[in-house]
Amino acid sequence: MATTEIAHDTVCVNPKCDEYGVECRENVTVRSRYGVDGIRFLRCRRCRAEFSERHGTPLFGLRILHEEIVSVVNHLADGTGVRKTSRLTGVSRETVGRILKRTGNHAREVHDRLVRDL
């Protein structure tokens, strides 16, 4: 009998589920892995919803290696332009722009949610 891998660091993303957003439970299991990085495809045991571990992150839907994304973001954070970042990392200019837009929007949303009443 095969053992089931528990995704301890993940919560159910289905708002209709009783376990939605509940941490430290064993309700989310790894159904399979996909992509070159072996991204986990998860399933909630309670509601049977299936979702990627990148669901709800700026990385969702990007089909490049995690290390390449980190490299692109690091260059952009250091103030390197899109074209130069593209040349330095070997990632297309369009993909660098897409990563910049997604991570920038995500950073703004996190900032607006966390920084209040200063």
Helix/strand layout:
Layout: E1 28-34, E2 39-44, E3 50-52, H1 66-77, H2 82-89, H3 93-114
Antiparallel strand pairs: 1-2, 2-3
Helix pairs in contact: 1-2, 1-3, 2-3
Quick recap:
The protein has 118 residues and is of the alpha+beta class.
List keywords for this structure.
flat, alpha+beta, 118 residues, 36% helix, three-stranded antiparallel β-sheet
Q: Would you give an account of this structure?
A:
With 118 residues, the chain is an alpha+beta fold. It has 3 helices and 3 strands. The chain has helices spanning 66-77, 82-89, 93-114, and strands spanning 28-34, 39-44, 50-52. The protein has a 3-stranded antiparallel sheet, with no helix packed on it. The protein is flat and about 45 Å long.
The secondary-structure element order is EEEHHH
Inertia-based shape: flat
Name the average pLDDT: 86
Ends apart, CA distance between termini: 56 Å
Strand order of the largest sheet: 1-2-3
Helix count, DSSP H or I runs of 4 or more residues: 3
The structural class is alpha+beta
What's the gyration radius in Å?
17 Å
Low-confidence stretches: none
